[in-house]
Amino acid sequence: METAFSITVTLNLKHKKLPYGKFSLGRDKVSSMEIFSMLKGRGGSEHSCSIQMDLTQEITGLPVPIGMIHCSLEELKENVSVISREIFRIAQLEEGEIIPLK
Length: 102
Prior knowledge:
This protein is of the alpha+beta class.
């Protein structure tokens, strides 16, 4: 069964959600969960205007939500840095498999 993990960045606006970014984390659940746990933000209820980051597991193409946080613009900046550093570490230093976005 094909499985892949990703983090999606979404703007929650007054009357709609606007997904605008996605990071592929590969196929390893443990490392994906570790990366998501490093991110700054808060869980809980949705705010009317906020930035949301969702950890999703795709199983044979169907997305299954695993985790969600809401973050500020400053936290988003730090989170993008953490995700980029960890993807680089996994792909380059550990020679792990990161699935390219389609």
